[in-house]
Write a structure and sequence with these properties.
The structure holds two protein chains of two kinds. By secondary structure, chain A is α/β, with parallel strands linked by helices. Chain A contains 13 helices and 15 strands. Chain A has two domains: 186 residues, Thiamin diphosphate (ThDP)-binding fold, Pyr/PP domains (Rossmann fold, 3-Layer(aba) Sandwich), CATH 3.40.50; 116 residues, Rossmann fold (3-Layer(aba) Sandwich), CATH 3.40.50.920. Classes of the chains: A alpha/beta, B alpha/beta.
Chain lengths: 383, 208
């Protein structure tokens, strides 16, 4: 039985975080993400959690890492310039393996840009914004129902892999009200994963000694007998700094491998009318919704179009994209930036099909009719 | 089925709240809805608008492109929309793309306030329903602020013109939506406002 309810995008994110077990939020309000903080401030005290508005974005990310190390599921949300300020401590969270969720409700950039309008300009930054090599899972839902699903999934993967996970939304998604079927979110139906705990006695405990899954079982700070150390410096199994090249190599390779090896299980896409498609659109977020409508419009005009909507945008669905390129005559990547994910699609296509772009970064959405015109242009040239 | 509605008015007329109540009523009715709005505060000047897309299935593109109904609450809003023909409904978009992006379908419902809006639309092209919305709120209920909800009552009745004599969303769903969307102390006032809207809506349909 469907249980339909209208939900505001940003509120859906906060409510799903509570469902996922989030009990700590530190943040600094910024448009268009502020309603997430607002809702968390209301909900957390009622669920035995803590909400704290910090002095700035940098400190709020630091507080999230601290809370995570104390054992809490922790989250923060931000937008635009705030996401840039989060980057240093996001890298720290990756290095010390602090599970946490960082939500970025994308607005128009660069700099303060277009605070109240949509953008998709942090596709690359969400992966590469903080310095050094890394692989951070990045999920990007496409509707309010999926905001709830992906928020829960972000917490689950963060906990299972002990890694920060970035959840990308955009201004339209965050500020939209939409029907959600709440049936799947009754507590008995939601699958929750928790981080593993050490299964050795205190005297054998090494916080950064990984298990077979490449994930270490780090005890929450303050657990009697389980002493640990965390540092952003390269470290050995004890958590204390090292410059030993073998240890450093093992650490950086493991940090990336623990995410990469789970790519197949983490991959999530929506395929729409791809079976006989001659032109495929690859899109995400609000733009993918325009693309889906455009596919139907194109089919009415006799153009065999299809859509691959990518939800797990990093690690990217490399093989799926390569297969897609072999299967179609052309690929179109519409996105609200000057051309970011298209680079990844081109890389994965490996020349099997030409990749076209449709870009905009002026704060307005891409309309279905505009994608249709581009499809018609491509069909004339390629099909 | 995809049904698109825009509520547009001057700052402070509650256009966005009306859109929220409408979307909530659709969900109460078992339909899918998306609701978007111009973001930012327009309490004292300028126009503001709230859009709703309603469907019997999950909605792809969440914003409006082809309106099936528009509720116009002030002359200022009317003038802003109707700059030349075809009716232009995205005040922000440029002249060249205006009619491509957001249009009013022929046969669409256009609900206007009888006293506040001088409406010179082609009645053969649109189903224009004109009713004393603000007057009912101010004189009948003593609160001009609830004109947005009175307008929803008129809209509820008027959709029967488009759906073979049966309204798109029932009165009960609207009343439930009002309970969920407005502060507790204003629930009764808003419910009455809605019911008054239904009454003047019925009267307006008979007149037309």
């Amino acid at each position: 039985m469907a249980k339909l309810e209208i939900k505001y995008g940003n509120h859906a994110c906060a409510e799903a975080a509570i469902l996922a077990g989030c009990r700590f939020y530190a943040g600094y309000p910024i448009t268009p993400s502020s309603e997430i903080a607002e809702r968390m401030a209301e909900l957390l005290p009622r669920h035995g959690g803590a909400f704290i508005q910090m002095e700035d974005e940098i400190a709020s990310m630091a507080a999230v890492v601290g809370a995570s190390f104390a054992g809490a599921k922790a989250m923060t949300a931000t937008s635009g310039p705030g996401f840039s300020l989060k980057q240093e401590n996001l890298g720290y969270a990756f290095m010390v393996e602090a599970p946490c969720v960082v939500v970025n409700v994308q607005r128009g950039g660069p700099s303060t840009g277009l605070p109240t309008q949509i953008g998709q300009q942090e596709i690359m930054q969400s992966l590469w914004g903080t310095h050094g090599d890394k692989l951070i899972p990045v999920f990007y839902p496409g509707n309010v129902q999926e905001i709830m699903e992906e928020t829960i999934r972000a917490f689950n993967w963060a906990e299972r892999l002990r890694t920060p996970v970035v959840l990308l939304l955009d201004e339209v998604l965050g500020h939209m009200r939409e029907t959600v079927d709440m049936e799947q979110f009754t507590p008995d139906k939601v699958e929750i994963w928790n981080r593993k705990m050490p299964d050795v006695p205190p005297e054998e405990y090494l916080p950064y000694k990984p298990g077979e899954d490449d994930v270490p079982a780090i005890a929450p700070y303050g657990t009697p007998g389980y002493r640990g150390h965390a540092t952003g410096l390269h470290h050995d199994y004890t958590g204390f700094p090292t410059t030993n090249p073998e240890m450093c190599e093992e650490l950086i390779e493991r940090l990336i491998r623990k995410v990469k090896r789970n790519q197949p299980e983490m991959e999530k896409n929506e395929e729409y009318k791809l079976d006989d498609a001659e032109v495929a659109i690859v899109a995400f977020g609000t733009t993918a919704r325009a693309a889906k409508t455009a596919v139907d419009m194109a089919r009415e005009k006799g153009i065999k179009a299809g859509l691959l909507r990518v939800v797990t945008i990093w690690p990217s669905p490399e093989e799926t994209l390569n297969k897609l390129a072999k299967h179609v005559n052309a690929i179109l990547v519409p996105e609200l930036n000057m051309g970011q994910y298209v680079l990844e699609v081109e890389r994965c296509a490996r020349g099997e099909a030409p990749v076209y772009r449709l870009n905009r970064a002026n704060g307005k959405v891409i309309y279905p009719s505009e994608i249709l015109s581009k499809l018609e242009e491509i069909a004339k040239a390629r099909v | 089925m995809r049904y698109e509605v825009r509520v547009i008015g001057s700052a402070g007329q509650g256009s966005i709240l009306a859109a929220v109540v409408l979307a909530t009523a659709a969900a109460e009715e078992g339909l899918w809805a998306t609701q978007t709005a111009t973001y930012g505060a327009a309490m004292r000047s300028g126009t503001s608008l709230g859009d709703v897309v309603i469907s019997d299935q999950q909605i792809d593109f969440p914003q409006v492109t082809e309106l099936d109904a528009v509720i116009i609450q002030s002359q200022e809003a009317y003038d802003e929309m109707v700059k030349g023909k075809p009716v232009r409904l995205d005040p922000e978009c440029g002249e060249n793309t205006a009619d491509v992006l957001v249009n009013v379908k022929p046969g669409a419902l256009v609900i206007v306030d009888e006293d506040l809006v001088q409406c010179d639309l082609d009645c053969n092209m649109y189903r224009v329903v004109s009713a004393p919305i603000a007057r009912t709120a101010a004189e009948g209920l003593g609160r001009r602020q609830v004109m947005n909800i009175v307008a929803l009552g008129v809209f509820q009745v008027a959709t029967s013109l488009q759906f073979d004599g049966k309204p798109l969303i029932s009165e009960e769903s609207f009343l439930k939506a009002i309970e969920k969307s407005v502060p507790k102390r204003f629930i009764d006032l808003n419910k009455t406002a809605f019911q008054e809207g239904v009454k003047i809506g019925k009267a307006a349909l008979q007149k037309a």
